[in-house]
């Protein structure tokens, strides 16, 4: 049985919660599945100190001892992930932003390649579409298979038209998400995602083995692979990938030269 976990950045259990409930109802019409609600407010997640220990030495050396690893385990156990947040000052809620800050080391060392991901943003007036883009962008760099998210207007008190709109949007999102959840093979990377992988890899090779990120890439076998996971690249993408490797090395050289002056 597939498992979907929704991480919710609001403690109010109103419009954002309702949107996720609609997702659950719609998805369970396709097939039986385990659906878990994770309200970030219910977990102890201290604010990131910006010490960079997780980047430099590894996440297990983080000085903060709280529920971070419990939340990580919930992501690891799920087949599908939903991040749902209200629009607060044109950004995700503070709890959700801190969630991403605490897991920011995974933007350097992604891992969730086999998991489907999407985003829900609820808002009063405007600005939410950019938040959806932020959540999608973050999901991509964490390694998720990202499905286009949804922004829903929920100006309180919600009238019948808004309720109808919310249900319609969640139905469309549920359809997209379920199609992604049903894929049995990993997608072929786009040129932009291939560029990120190849240029990052080339940069790490040029910087040297003292980097913790270097060790992670080496352990994953990524210095020899075409991409993060096994995939078939056509001749054009193979050639472009080689160019991105070269570009990454040149970029590091340029930065190194500038630092010497």
Topology (SSEs and partners):
Elements: E1 3-8, H1 15-30, E2 34-39, H2 53-56, H3 68-77, E3 80-86, H4 94-102, H5 105-108, E4 116-123, H6 128-142, E5 145-146, E6 150-153, H7 160-182, H8 191-207, H9 212-220, H10 235-259
Parallel strand pairs: 1-2, 1-3, 3-4, 4-5, 4-6
Helix pairs in contact: 1-7, 8-10
Q: How would you describe this protein?
A:
- The chain has 261 residues and is α/β, with parallel strands linked by helices.
- It has two domains: 3-182, Flavodoxin domain (Rossmann fold), CATH 3.40.50; 191-259, no CATH class.
- Helices cover 51% and strands 13% of the residues.
- The chain contains ten helices and six strands, in the order βαβααβααβαββαααα.
- Strands 1, 2, 3, 4, 5 and 6 form a six-stranded parallel β-sheet that branches.
- Strand 4, helix 6 and strand 5 form a beta-alpha-beta unit.
- The longest helix has 25 residues, at 235-259.
- It is globular, with a radius of gyration of 20 Å.
- 30% of the residues are buried.
- The mean pLDDT is 93.
- Residues 3-149 form the NADPH-dependent FMN reductase-like domain.
- This is Multimeric flavodoxin WrbA.
- GO terms for molecular function: oxidoreductase activity.
- Keywords: Flavoprotein, FMN.
- It holds the Pfam family FMN_red.
What keywords describe this structure?
single chain, about 260 residues, Rossmann fold, 2 domains, six-stranded parallel beta sheet, globular
